[in-house]
Amino acid sequence: MANGEKQYLQMCRDILNHGTEKGDRTGTGTFSTFGKQLRFDLQEGFPLLTTKRVPFRLIASELLWFIKGDTNIRYLLEHNNNIWNEWAFKKWVESDEYEGPDMTDFGNRSLTDESFNQSYQQQMARFKELILTDDAFAGTYGNLGSVYGKQWRAWRTSQGETIDQLKEVVENIKNNPDSRRHIVTAWNPEDVPSNMALPPCHTMFQFYVADGKLSCQLYQRSGDVFLGVPFNIASYALLTYLVAHSCSLEPGEFIHTLGDAHIYKNHVDQVNTQLNREQRNFPELWLNSEKNSLFEFDMEDMKLEGYDPHPSIKAPVAV
After folding, report:
1. Which residues of 158-191 are buried (b: 16+ CB within 10 A; e: fewer)?
2. Active-site residue list
């Protein structure tokens, strides 16, 4: 049995038992701790949690979206991926162009008011259709600003040039594997206040090569432990596999370091449900061996084998 999921579940218990009650940007309230670390040996299997179903296809398409440098949710919607919809939708319903019913606090209201939820679903469906079919609308309301893909692939310098951090780090791993500078950062202080739908939660990652294996450590400033962190674990593990493959290395370890690790108050029941489940073996990841570059991979080039999780557990997203 892989030890990584055991660490994750213990972190959940620690936060519920010892976390500090704190307010937050969304107004939901959290139980919070500061400074956690999880370690996953990628030789033990692909770290997709088994105590609840975590949708690998959503994780993979979002990661490919980052790798492509894309910042518009149209690509995600084309792959039936809705995980960034709420932030883009919020931008639209708070704009002067929106003329529908009041959508204030739509995330929470949709869970408790069935009449409102029907209206919300109608507006969201309308929004998604416009993103997919109207180029001008998608350009205005589908674009999330200078989020992960932009910072990874086209960091804007003060001289007006761009830096492709991800491409450079892959080349550096190949040519100078012992370097201590295999770093990609998404935290751009100039863009954070005004040019991002959501400032990056997973802010910086660093690769490390030893004994023919590639390891990755992520620093995440803020982690929604129930909904977000399982995605983050799998996403950066997948990135590590892809970069390792591109550099003719084996995957080593994924180390996940968290700043503010929190459980939202309206996720507590769901977390307790998960904690009462027995963990199972991690699946294995298959990659298309004919693809040699990180930037060549598509959805059909990766799949899981042997994933047998407990059922999914739904919870509201705090926007």
Report:
1. eeeeeeebbeebbebbeeebeeeebebebebeeb
2. 201
